[in-house]
Amino acid sequence: MLLVSCVYLLHNTWQSFVGKHNFSYQSMEVLRYWTHSSTLRGSQLNEETAGSKLFALTLYTTLWASMYRIQLSLWSHRTAEWRCRVVSLTHGTLVTYLSYYSQCVEGPSVFGIEPGLPNNNTQVFIAKLCLGYFIFDLVWCLCYQTEPPIMIVHHVLSIFGTANMIFQGKWGTELVAVIGATEVSNPLLQLRWFLKSAGYSKTILGEIVDFLFIIVFGAFRFLLSGY
What we know:
mainly alpha; 9 helices; globular
């Protein structure tokens, strides 16, 4: 939660510099945002300039890359993939919570609405976090050549689709729902890898995580997404 608040505060600080908002007001809004106040600012429509959006994307990409870089000092004995999966685990957990909040608490929900509604601030915030991560992950995959070509294409399409939502200014409700449904199983996927790399995949804990991953993946990727 501290990470989310810091990123959101940095984003809104930049907006204050381009003359769109007052910094002290935004600082209080961050606190109200995460305490579920009835005056949430996130439900307001997003009206950023293209320059502000590009700056935010640079900021979030740098954020994920910095998280990876910091691990070189903290866990220098770990492999590059281990450090990358820590970033992936953090991203998956974070955007799953934010997507749930956007869809189920703040709204609008993807169920029962007209498609193509204008984006609100929360939806754009989630999309920027994801796009920054997608860019970081694509660069990492290209550098270490760990993924097959089909996964590189998948990364490129994810980047294109998310950027299209941000700069067109609509489809935020649908994209956030897709992000939530696809990322909800990501923390379990990463946990499976960590358990396997540590030699615990055949333990009771490993079996439980495998079972939960299959259930969550199937429920969200096939049942809920199909609905």
